[in-house]
Amino acid sequence: MWLVVLFLVPLPFIQTLTTGLPALYNDQRLAIIWGAVAYAWMLASIYLSTRPHWLDRLIGLPKMYMIHGIMALAAVALAYFHKQSSPSAGWIKTTGDWAFDLFLGLLVFALVFMAGWFTSHFKVIQVSKRWLETHLLKHELTVWLHRLNLVAVALVFIHVQLIDYIRAIIPFMIWFDGATLLVALSYIWQKFSSQRLAQLQQTQLIAPNVLELTLSVPKQLMRQYLPGDFLFLAIPQQPGLQEPHPFSITKFDMKRRQLTLTIRGDGDFTRQLQKLKPPIAVTITTGFGQYEQLLTRRQPQQLLLIGGGMGVVPLLAVVQQHPELTTDFFYSAHSQRALLYPQEFATWEQRPNFKGHLQVGHFEADTILQTLPQNLENLAVMIGGPQALGQYWRTRLQQHGVAADQIYYEEFTW
Predict the structure, then answer these.
(1) Which of 28, 304, 314, 389 pairs as cysteine with 248 (C-beta 3.0–4.6 A)?
(2) Per its UniProt record, what Pfam families does this chain match (predicted)?
(3) Taking the mean position of all CA atoms in its chain, how far away is CA 183?
(4) Residue 355: which pLDDT band, with cuts at 50, 70 and 90?
(5) Under 8 Å between Cβ of 290 and 408
(6) What is the dihedral of CA 166, 167, 171, 177, to 10 degrees?
(7) Same domain, yes or no, for 101 and 29?
(8) How confident is the model at residue 128 (pLDDT cuts 50, 70, 90)?
């Protein structure tokens, strides 16, 4: 994916531009190429932001968002070099300057508020982000501010259309206009066609600040979800809940066409969910996630699950849907009341091939490592929980011979 975005996407832009660029502008050739590559990368970044479902099933949405963010950062860096090395005047300069300033401001904003892969490494930024989200910037406002990137791209589009000698390079303009149109159509399609109507039938507090939602889902859509998936939920009729938000699926009920979501009230969106009075219409997307992809790829005989806090939610659906797998499930939380669905674990204990381990506080490493089978080839490991937990167990398991492609941890840091 990195190779495609870094090299293949901008290649037609570079080739058509260098072939058709007049010799008069040879001294600016490199700067002009930098600008073209920056635009190609920005288009790729916007396309990734549409959450293409086919790509999620290949690499996963967390990785997709990380590539989206880093490509935007790289595009702004190249745009800076282009701006410094390619002089212009009039509206050509004005539209270029406006676009760059807007991109730069939004990039700093996105790194703090929307790039969990970045903020998770800096405690000060995490604390500042939580304070600002609580007191000043609600979720929907941050989403709308991020969409100003589309305005910046439109300014760049106008900027290029105003340059006579670039507009005269017909093959380049075909690629330029065609790629812009393709990404614009993808964005519109995602915005207006990815949402499906469902109904929120019931809500119930099952633990302090933890809400269980039961959704009634159309039959055809129900078939598209896999164990461990998450979906994006929005409530069009409720102010503050109109922008889609991701939540993992806890349970499937195919006969009743019902999905269960389990959500902790950590932010303004999730706290408002606790005030809803069902039944109420909602919109949801198809499923995203890589947990089931791991099972499809590895075909394991034994499953090791490690869950911490709310990260346990997608793992519960995996156990529900795969009773045939020999399973060791280690689940920890910070208090007894925070351990969710103990009755489900009691039911699964009736299976001859299931062992559940629930406790308050972290498990000692040896407690989990001693359950590893002698033949590691037949093992798959799924981890859900805080980033520190996921990173720790990926490292420890690989140190004990478990291959990296046998382990999947889905970081909900975006």
Answers:
(1) 314
(2) FAD_binding_8
(3) 19
(4) very high
(5) yes
(6) 110
(7) yes
(8) low
180: part of which helix (H) or strand (E)?
A: helix 170-193
Task: Give the tens place of pLDDT for each residue, 208-226.
Answer: 999 999 999 998 899 899 9
Report yes or no: 190 and 51 within 8 Å, Cβ to Cβ.
Answer: yes
| Nearest-angstrom CA–CA distance, 79 and 100 | 7
- Cα 330 from chain centroid (whole Å): 26
The parent domain of residue 393 ranges over: 291-409
Confidence band of 117 (pLDDT split at 50, 70, 90): low
> Domain boundary at 262, 284, 306, which?
284
Q: How many residues does the chain have?
A: 414
10 Å CB burial of residue 357 (0-12, 13-18, 19+) is middle
Q: Is residue 414 part of a domain?
A: no
Q: What single DSSP character describes residue 108?
A: H
Token pair in block for residue 145: 């501010």
Token output for 285: 């997307």
Q: What is d(CA 284, CA 282) in angstroms, rounded to the nearest whole number?
A: 7
Helix (H, G, I), strand (E, B) or coil at 102: helix
Count of structural domains, the chain: 3
Cα of first residue to Cα of last residue in the chain, in angstroms, is 19
In which element (H, E) is residue 300 found? Answer: none
User: Which residues, including other chains, have CB under 8 Å from residue 181's CB and lie 6 or more apart?
Assistant: none
Lookup: tokens for 188: 């519109």
